Amino acid sequence: MDWIALRGRDKYYRLAKRLGVPSRAYFKLAQLNNKYGFLVRGSKVVDLGSSPGGWLSYELERVGQMGRVVAVDVDNIRVTSHGNLVFIQKDIFDLDPQELLGALGGRADVLLSDLAPRFTGIRSVDIARHYDLASRALGLSSQTLDSRGWFVIKLYMSPDVKEFVGMLRRRFENVKLEKPSSSRPSSSEVYAVCHKVRD
Ligand SMILES: C[S@@+](CC[C@H](N)C(=O)[O-])C[C@H]1O[C@@H](n2cnc3c(N)ncnc32)[C@H](O)[C@@H]1O
Question: How is domain 3-197 classified at the architecture level of CATH?
Fold first, then answer.
């Protein structure tokens, strides 16, 4: 990592500490939402891969008391309990979409996935595991997302990602790839912001 990337990481890391949010990921979602405005007061949100809770903190701020967030992760979250938050500690491959719909009280306006596998350092293995998680998130979106809803997912640049983005374009009317400035330049992560399910 070069010194510019290091300095960038320190800035958002320090800011997260200062604001008392669980991770610097908070700022990535904030930057995406500032551009697209998918999280609003009253939104019904599903957050896949929610631990420790950077995104979750931001979502709860945005949706307010009228909204609802259903968060899922195998690991625990570091976010204080809110009346409008349901946390399901579970592997997403064991998750029944009906459980999400029941906890949400209807279809989701926004489905977010920041899922990432535990990295082994073996690129082909890590990419394959992430692809499985991303495919599962996309599958869950087809069963739980409102047709006018938003699907936002973290992807890692790889030859397979092109194929995955192709699937997103077939599923959604609008698909944009974004790299927020709070994401380390040295990271291959990008975010696909997708809107409106095709008929
Ligand atoms: C990059 S972290 C998420 C960071 C989080 N969004 C935040 O803002 O603090 C990725 C998360 O995906 C979760 N994860 C990975 N595989 C999973 C699975 N099969 N089921 C549920 N969660 C999983 C990990 O436990 C990890 O917490």
Answer: 3-Layer(aba) Sandwich (3.40)
